[in-house]
Amino acid sequence: MFHKLARKHLLMxxxxxxAIPGYSNRSDSIVLNLNLNNFSSDKYRxxxxxxxxxxxxxxxxxxDGFGHIKLNKTSLKIEDLFLSSGxxxxxxxxxxxxxxxxxxxVIIASPAFPYYSHRAHLENVSVIDIPLLGENYDxxxxxxxxxxxxxxxxLCSPNNPVGTLLKQSEVETILKNFAGIVIMDEAYxxxxxxxSYVEWIKKYDNLIVLRSFSKFWGLAGVxxxxxxxxxxxxxxxxxxxxxxxxxxxxxxLLINKIxxxxxxxxxxxxxxxxxxxxxxxxxxxxxxxxxxxxxxxxLLVQFHDEKAVFQTxxxxxIFVANSSMQVPHSLRISIGLExxxxxxxxxxxxCCVANLA
Length: 357
Prior knowledge:
It is built from 11 helices and 11 strands. By secondary structure, it is of the alpha/beta class. The chain has 2 domains: 8-259, Type I PLP-dependent aspartate aminotransferase-like (Major domain) (Aspartate Aminotransferase, domain 2, 3-Layer(aba) Sandwich); 262-356, Aspartate Aminotransferase, domain 1 (Alpha-Beta Complex). α4 links the parallel β2 (105-108) and β3 (126-129). α2 packs parallel to α8 (248-258) and α10 (306-315) packs across α11. The model has no long low-confidence stretch (mean pLDDT 89).
């Protein structure tokens, strides 16, 4: 069963299955139905595993290993999970599965991840920007959002690039009253100790939670993401996904990585320590206008002259994100190793000296 908000022509398709053919990649099977290179002995000569249930089960079992999730063990099942080619791949599929080109619209709440609007424009779907309110960009303009009949609302908590969290009471008001799909991008939630919206999936069938393996899990090169949503939404994504879209090498790496959750929780503690130290350092610099509170592995910092700071850091071979197009005069600085943060501080002190000269 497909979700009622799926594109109309998808809802009309009956008893259709994905185009992935039956096959075996067992080494003791004689595979003569896929025109493979059977002369090769490389394990990647086969198409990737189409059944990813083992990854989904392992991920599901670790979800409540974080302080921000208290799952009922029977609430979510693997049919509510979809393994995607990164969060970007999930965004592609969701827009293509639910938005009618040249007809539907999506809402973004800026500042936001630019790919939301970029992908929508590529699919000929109009974009409505209803900016976040408040000095920390953590308040939704509920009345304006509900005044539009958009198909999808993109939200992000912790926010990228700011790092602040949305208010759950406001998000719930949206979920109860918004007629379309609400996407909560939680690419950075594992760095936070605050509640996740995963717990709300069974309560609201119009909610999609996006997760990424690129950030907390340290697998940006694997291109893996997770969609957590009601089964009817996930069914739409399975229908329209590209054949063999998840590489076998990525599959193997994910299985191993999820077993290492303990190590990554240690990384999280180290990150928080370095984030706090950097925040204190920046707060005492004349260069800095303000440092935004953050629940992610980065700080958004407003400078009096962000262009000069950006160039000084670049001259020191330190790369930060210039986010001034989203938040005026701001740079987004990822939290790195202690020695990397020390190099950053040295470079920032150079900016102070240059300003005094």
